[in-house]
Amino acid sequence: MLEIKNLSVTYPNNVKALEDVTVSIPSGKLVGVIGPNGAGKSTLLKGALGMVNRSGSVAFEGEPIEKIQQRIAYVEQKGNLDMDFPITVLQCVLLGTFPKLGWFKRPGKQEKEISMDALKRVGMEEFANRQISELSGGQFQRVLLARTLAQDAVLIFLDEPFVGIDIKSEGIIMDQLFKLRDQGKTILIVHHDLTKVGKYFDGLILLNKRLVASGEVDEVMTHDNLAKVFGEGAFTDIGGN
């Protein structure tokens, strides 16, 4: 179980991005993090990982999250990544094998085989020697997922992976995420498309700087909860009742 207790994040100039969030997520679940712009969705992931100054505690399977960093995969928003960095697709995926290699060790034959297998699983093996700058948005997102597959993490955080990508890539990514979930991996995804949450997720975390609701999709996607964060028209727009 991923246990987040009393998580708060305050940015410079005393801007409160997240206030006193407490939520528990069972292992082996695929959970969406939803809310309006500025609700603290990305901050929840970064705060849980200790990437920003925070108060509160985060544990996974009873261990403080700081002690299991090598077992965690994090893919930030594509817009925050440098796609012009001179690195090939295969080299990018190989980075996922580094946490298990230890200090001063270089990836060898086994790591390359793992990385190529990961690329095959997302349909990108033919692009192994391409520069990442030559990829479309959807192709690059698939490569980032391949890097996560190569890492074989048990806890996976994805921040808006479907923004600006094609339908084919989104389908391939979700297919692999479902398989990871079925293998017992715990996955959190910051997501913005309310029409797909019932199809994609086992559970939801609804945020608006504070926790509004968490639990199974039907429990969270109520008129009252959505109205609190998106306004009265939101539930009608997604076909709710």
Automatic annotation (TrEMBL):
PROSITE patterns: ABC_TRANSPORTER_1, ABC_TRANSPORTER_2. GO terms for molecular function: ATP binding; ATP hydrolysis activity. Residues 2-234 form the ABC transporter domain. It comes from the Bacteria. InterPro entries: AAA+_ATPase, ABC_transporter-like_ATP-bd, ABC_transporter-like_CS, Metal_Ion_Import_ABC, P-loop_NTPase. Keywords: ATP-binding, Nucleotide-binding, Transport. Belongs to the ABC transporter superfamily. This is Iron/zinc/copper transport system ATP-binding protein.
